[in-house]
User: Fold this.
Amino acid sequence: MNKTATPTTQVFPDSAAASQALAMEVVALIKSREAQGLPTVLGLATGGTPIQFYEALRKLHSAGEISFRTVTTFNLDEYLGLDRADPHSYWQFMHEQLFDHVDILPDNIHVPDGTIADSELEAYCRSYESSIVEAGGIDLQILGIGTNGHIGFNEPGAARDSRTRVVDLCEKTRNDNAVHFTEEQQVPTRAISMGCATILDAKRIALMAWGERKAATVQSALHGPITPELPASFLQEHPDTTYYLDKGSAGGS
Ligand code: GLP
Assistant:
């Protein structure tokens, strides 16, 4: 893919307004595809960033604005070693934040399984990729961004052509995410993550980032060199990416 379009940015007064706008984009997408008799495939993200976005989607659903009956979802990543029932698993996060509150069909939910045995992982990751292709590819991929520029769990050094695989988590990421864990249960050291190429295959990408703490990373991702050292910089090569920013994260851009 050549550099055809620098991602566009939309700056909102605050994260709530940005999250609402992105939720409205999702509603419009689902409705327009429904009108054409087509399902919608969403790539979904976890972390603190998308919480208000999922809240906005829940509210739009309970207000009767949107149904998820035609929606299939693929989550970016999951910690390895965590059972689905574990309160820290991304499976749980997604059910609490969205799936338990909307009419999505359980068979249409895909979150990587963190309990797959090491010997099965390679085949499992390949099958996750195949499922995305069989579903028709991702129409809209939702992303957050790590303070080290990671997308999904594609940490610095991740290859542009990487696919779903097992990744080792950086110390910085484990420290950032430690707030969600307890002393007794530490942040896992490995995860399954969609690859950079999996993400870049999405027809459209929306990346959310909030607060001054992300401003320098956002600035580098948008305008710095395209490098595996900052995996979000690969989005510069994607033809249809929008950064949804609040004033803080847009500070440097
Ligand atoms: C997490 C997730 C990413 C997320 C990022 C930022 O570890 N794997 O998908 O975008 O790190 O997290 P937060 O939104 O909590 O800042």
